[in-house]
From TrEMBL:
Protein name per its UniProtKB record: EAL domain-containing protein
Shown stretch of the complete protein: 389 to 666 of 690
Species for this entry: Pannonibacter tanglangensis
One cellular component term from this protein's GO annotations in UniProt: membrane
Span of the signal peptide: none
GO biological process: signal transduction
Length: 278
């Protein structure tokens, strides 16, 4: 019945693409979500490898969908980017993160926060002012905010990206290169970039237990970063063995399921109380 007569099928289920009808539905739902309070932010801890102290958190978008439940970005970031809704989504995430960050400061538990930024946001002429407005309105200090750009975006070498990072860095905001190692940039590019932090992509961390090329890559990134005064965060740390290798190679900060999953703010606060060493 559903596929009867002259139903047009322009999509295939096999290649993982979202069917056209489903995309339209998702877009409509996302507009509603942005007009109401369905977008939330989860926080995942960043931990000092040597002391175990929580040194910060990454804010990650979540969507409380009325019918489908809690959605992770894999289900909606792409469509948000394609439709331009990423601008409003990004604003919302930044605002929610900064508001929470301010609340933690007021509670005597300050914590630096990292927020993801997509290409579309950086290309928007009003982006710099919007970020500064949100910081001003929420009272979250610029120096406690780090913006994460994927390596591909960071290396795009566009004038606009350079301008935005320069202006926001002058305001005290830090910048991180996300998913480092997945793009095509050589390590030699590092020294020319106006960034503070490199986040080593999870794919390099996953094989760390086994002696071999991943270990070498991580060691190389670390020694390079050290000599150029960049901070390094290892992403996706899941096992104690991985942590041991990172510690041995001199990596200072790690993030991953081993320490904590992304959590709602209240959950994060309890996790922090329980996990934080004396
Ligand atoms: P990302 O920036 O690389 O964020 C890390 C992702 O890895 C998160 O997925 C996190 O839940 C997951 N992760 C953390 N630790 C581990 C681990 O130990 N093992 C494994 N297997 N995974 C781990 P999430 O929250 O689903 O986000 C996926 C991506 O969506 C993010 O990747 C980021 O690129 C994007 N994203 C999330 N929030 C935003 C946002 O507000 N704006 C934009 N533009 N993109 C966002
Ligand atoms: Ca990130
Ligand atoms: Ca990442
Ligand atoms: Ca990623």
């Amino acid at each position: 019945k559903a596929a009867g007569g002259n139903t047009l099928r322009v999509y295939s289920h096999s290649d993982g693409e979202v069917p056209a009808r489903e995309r339209l539905r998702l877009e409509t739902d996302l507009r509603v979500a942005l007009a109401s309070d369905q977008i939330t932010v989860f926080f995942q801890p960043k931990v000092d490898v040597d002391t175990g102290h929580v040194t910060g958190a990454e804010a990650l978008a979540r969507w409380n969908h009325p019918r489908r439940g809690l959605l992770t970005p894999g289900a909606f970031i792409e469509i948000a980017e394609e439709t331009g809704l990423i601008l409003r989504l990004g604003d919302r995430v930044l605002e929610l993160a900064c508001r929470q960050g301010r609340a933690w400061i007021d509670a005597g538990q300050p914590l630096p926060l990292a927020v993801n930024v997509s290409m579309r946001q950086l290309e928007w002429a009003g982006y710099t002012d919007r970020v500064l407005e949100i910081l001003e309105a929420t009272g979250f200090p610029p120096s406690m905010l780090e913006l994460e750009l994927t390596e591909t975006v960071a290396m795009a070498n566009s004038e606009q990206v350079r301008l935005v990072t320069e202006r926001l860095r002058r305001a005290g905001i830090r910048f991180a290169i996300d998913d480092f190692g997945t793009g095509y940039s050589s390590l030699g590019h590092l020294q020319h970039l106006p960034f503070d932090t490199f986040k080593i992509d999870r794919s390099f961390i996953s094989g760390l237990e086994v002696e071999g090329s991943n270990r070498l890559i991580v060691e190389t990134i670390l020694s390079m970063a050290r000599s150029l005064n960049y901070e390094v965060v290892a992403e996706g740390v899941e096992t104690l063995e991985q942590l041991e290798v990172l510690r041995a190679t001199g990596c200072k900060t790690a993030q991953g399921y081993l320490f904590g999953m992304p959590m709602a703010a209240t959950m994060f606060a309890s996790w922090r109380r329980a996990f934080q060493p004396a």
